[in-house]
Amino acid sequence: MRPEHPPEFPLAVHDLTVAYHRKPVLWDVELNIPEGTLAGIVGPNGAGKSTLLKACLDLIPKTSGEALIYGKPYEEQRDLIAYVPQRESVDWDFPVSALDVVAMGTYRKLGWFKRIGRTQKNQAREALEKVGIDHLADRQISQLSGGQQQRVFLARALVQDAQIYFMDEPFAAVDAATEQAIIKLLQTLNAQGKTILCVHHDLATVSRYFDHLVLLNMRVVASGPTSETFTRENLHKTYGGKLNLLDDVAHTLKNIGR
Amino acid sequence: MTLELLRETLFLEKHNTRLVVLGVAFLGATAGLIGSFLLLRKQSLLGDALSHATLPGIGIAFAVMSWMGLSGRSLPGLLIGATITGLLGVILVLAIRRSTRLKDDAAMGIVLSVFFGLGIAILKMVEKIPGQSAAGLDSFIYGKTASMVWSDFFLIAGTLAVTTVITVLILKELTLLCFDSNFASTEGWSTLGLDIILMALVTAVTVVGLQAVGLILIIAFLITPPTAARFWTNRLGYMLVLSTVIGAISGWIGASISALYSNLPAGAIIVITAALIFLLSMIFGTARGVLPRYLRHRKLQKKVGRQHILRSTYEILENTQDSPPLKNLPIPMELLRKHRYWAKGELPKLIRQARAEDHVERQPTGELRLSESGFGEASRITRNHRLWELYLIKHADIAPSHVDRDADMVEHLLGAEIVHQLEAALELAKSTIESPHLIESR
Amino acid sequence: MSKSLLLLPILFLAGACTKKNEITTDGTIVTTIGMIADVTREIAGDKQEVINLIGESIDPHTHKPLKSEVDRIQKAGLVLYNGLLLEGKMGTLLNSRKEKGNPVVAVAEGLKDVELIGDGNHPDPHLWMDISLWSKVAEKIGAELKSYDSDNSDHYAQRLAEYRKKLSDLHTHALMVFPTIPAEQRVLVTAHDAFSYLGRAYGIEVRGIQGISTESEAGTKDINDLVDYLVEKEIPAIFIESSLSDKSVKAVIEGAAQKGHPVRIGGELFSDAMGKLGTYEGTYIGMMDHNITTIVNGLGGTAPKNGFQGKLND
Q1: What DSSP element (H or E) covers A17?
Q2: Residue of C217, C255, C276 lying closest to B144 (CB–CB)
Q3: How does pLDDT run across C273-284, given as a tens digit for each residue?
Q4: Class of CATH domain A11-88+162-256
Q5: B294-434: which CATH architecture?
Q6: Are B86 and B207 within 8 A, CB to CB?
Q7: Is 3.40.630.10 the CATH number for B3-222?
Q8: Distance from CA of B185 to the nearest CA of A (A)
Q9: What ipTM was estimated for this complex?
Q10: Which of A220, B205, B263, C123 has the maximum number of C-beta atoms within 10 A of its C-beta?
């Protein structure tokens, strides 16, 4: 075990490189996510944010490096983790109901061949209630709005009662009410001591939502508590020359009193 | 085609009819079942590629067995050859996908056509092998459906049993695989393993079907029933059952027709039957068919139009009178026309509709007047509309000037039950409320 | 650069044109089926090279010509084929050669005093099943050879006469052995309708599972009808064909067995193709000898096991 990545970190990434067809997407990523943080990963499009999550979860092969969950490889720690994929990674035209999808979070504990029973269905309903859409339990998922679909995914993660939550763009293209509901839920989970890692796209809400921040552009530009990391200089290094945009952001930062 | 023949065929009185009809029905059921998962996994084309890739295996197996001195036409040997090249085709697709930039459908298309062409070429070449009769090898393409024998049927029934058992056992695992393979993977399910099981079942159905009904029919069986079933339901369980049933019925009807008339090859008729069922499903399927969708749309339009005309009339009355209680007076058509947007020819049609429901009356002066029941109905609709407007303002960040448009659409989906909830939530005593924004004539 | 590119198609066309004029015949005689080839060889002796395209165990109804076969036909001095739509998938090729004025002759068509079985549009092409008819075809082949190669006219005339004598002997033999089949069992059931001429010539009823052409697939009703027929007539044996799959025959046997009437496979017949080249059965006479012997013995009659010349293998 390397000294810089002691086993108490929920997520420790060391020397991670991921390349598709010889083009590197992530390069020498070094990262520790501390226990109990609500962490955000931001960066420009194509910066490798989704790839980082997927590589940590063994969804895509690592070209080199490792990612450890509390000091152990992912396969040994599945029980501790819940994953919320990007909403568009799934065809919402699939013939299942919201309840069916949430119940999928209980499959692992059930194991092979067993069917879901009343216990699992109740757990699923509870989770749907927590995200505020229990009245939509029997609705076909194609008839749900974008925000409702995102809540279904969240409920599925809730049902797993995990310690660490990996979320890929949970706030992308959802309505304001859903966004509020989601962040409230995440904060509740965080208050219970869970560690949450979100790929995020909206710079304007970064400082409001996350206490820990990773700025990623193929390499980790900066990572640490948001107050220290979310600076104009770091943003410039991450996003390159879009100064006007950054000026606006910096202005907003000033107004929020950072 | 006599009545006696019809009875004989329906009751499967003849041995050959029995074998063919039941055999093809079972095969259709199996293919419909496993084909559904292929469809949901979005790998129908892969199943297609696999089926086509079995063809060279038959020719190669024939050649190898002949060379080894065995009978070239030994069935188990041919089927093993078919399985090997079928799976090889699938592996090739996956390899192309991984190592080149070609997209899925290009990779599958290439493998499909190359293997099929290769198969035909090899079958032609093995004809020339001296001493071995390659006669009838190309029946693997078109099938000899009517010539089914007991051993064929046995194999088919066995495949149906095995497929059903496996599918029931790992139903939730397969569903998860098809819906969200990434999530499945993070949860520790071997997506590769499940995909292999799926492909293995597809291979089994294909190979078993190959020597009974031919390649073309099996391919049709794998794709047509599931896509037809999808039009009738939005629930996975129902879709699986329906697809199985449609596969079985296509086989049953097709084979029966072939038993009723001379010179009708069973394989072709079955494919046509399946295609017809698909067409009917696409048009009439209750969940997603073209016709039901259209009818539902028309119904909604009618409902919306009805509420528009009643509410408009009511609002005009409010506008033209100063003091409550509202009196039910006739209103000039011009006011109605200008009150809101009407599509071309819509207003007269809606008036006719409302008159048919006895909600409005035409005055001799040409003006329009609500009937007693119409007045009550218009009042109720207007009240609902304004409730919703208020609700949206109080509970969502939508600026007042946008409310009317949204409310119009959503209101029509509310229904009486939600209205009661809204009333309770907003503690209303009055039967009508003022609209929270100015109603201007447009 | 672009100018020289323009020259390419022109050169190509020029090349193609010259190529056409260079095709000359190589003096071979090309036949489609073995039955014609064998007869032609018997008459021609060593004076001509005869090349046959569709070999043993291959179905002429569905055979699609290979490139090598197309070339052979293009280069042939004389092409002899059956006609009457037997070579189902070669029709366009043969007709186009004929239209260009090359010697391409349908030996089974246009024979005098021959009544074809079947209706006007789809006559039965399997003339070789009646040895007396095939003898007339041999006569026509002889006439073609004479006009193709008039130098050896006398040679051909003599060999033709000798061959026709042999055919006549075989025909007589058939006329004698077929009646030995018990009357109620005189029904020949095979995979496809190839034997109608044989039935007419030698007094035996024939039924096939598939129709005249094997391009059509048997339907369930066709199989049912045949099963009923076999059971009703109590026919003891049904025959498979060397150029077809035996699946449909097996299905019919199973159906009849279910009805309590066991039917066995009486033997393998040569219907659209002859036996192995180089063997006795690989000649027209041997093929028919085999067929006659197998059918007669299979249906309960008596025919000498080694055929009419004693040359058949058991």
Answers
A1: strand A11-20
A2: C217
A3: 888 888 898 899
A4: alpha beta
A5: Orthogonal Bundle (1.10)
A6: yes
A7: no
A8: 7
A9: 0.89
A10: B205
3-state secondary structure of B122: helix
Residue whose pair of structure tokens reads 């033997």 in the numeric block? C267
Contacts of B185 in chain A (CB under 8 A): 57-59
| Neighboring chain B residues of C62 at a CB cutoff of 8 Å | 138
CB C304 within 8 A of CB C310: yes
Cis peptide bond prior to B265, omega within 30° of 0: no
In this structure, chain C runs to a length of 314
A60 in reach of chain B (CB within 8 A): no
Interface check A101 vs B, CB under 8 A:
yes
Instruction: Give all domains of chain C, ordered by start, each with its CATH number.
Output: 20-170 (3.40.50.1980), 175-298 (3.40.50.1980)
Contact C247 B255 (CB under 8 A): no
Q: What parts of chain B have a pLDDT lower than 70?
A: 72, 130-135, 391-442
**Per-residue DSSP letter, B328:** -
The answer to whether residue A85 neighbours chain B at the CB level (below 8 Å) is yes
- With beta carbons less than 8 A apart as the criterion, state whether A72 and A24 touch: no
Q: Do B180 and A78 touch (CB under 8 A)?
A: no
Task: Tell me whether residue B183 is exposed, middle or buried, using C-beta atoms within 10 angstroms of its C-beta: 0 to 12, 13 to 18, 19 or more.
Answer: buried
Give the pLDDT confidence of B92-109 residue by residue, as tens digits.
Answer: 887 887 777 777 788 888
Q: Shortest CA distance to A131 belongs to which of A90, A95, A99? A: A99
**Rounded-to-integer distance, Cα B376 and Cα B372, Å:** 7
Q: Is B323 helix (H, G, I), strand (E, B) or coil?
A: coil
Q: Pick the closest to residue A239 from A218, A213, A208 (CA basis).
A: A218
Helix (H/G/I), strand (E/B), else coil: B108: helix
Q: What residues of chain C have any CB closer than 8 angstroms to a CB in chain B?
A: 55, 57-59, 62, 64, 66, 211, 216-225, 227, 241-248, 250-252, 254-255, 258-259, 276
Write down the pTM of the prediction: 0.81
Report how far apart, in Å, the C-alpha atoms of A54 and of each of A50, A62, A163 are: 6, 10, 18
Task: Give the pLDDT confidence score for residue C21 in this predicted structure.
Answer: 44
Q: Pick from C45, C192, A15: which is nearest to B136 by CA?
A: C192
Q: Where are the domains of chain B?
A: 3-222, 294-434
- Length reported for chain A: 258
- Tokens of residue B261, six digits: 């008339």
Tell me how far apart the terminal alpha carbons of chain A are, to the nearest angstrom. 37
Residue whose C-alpha is closest to residue C211's, from C195, C224, C199, C231: C195
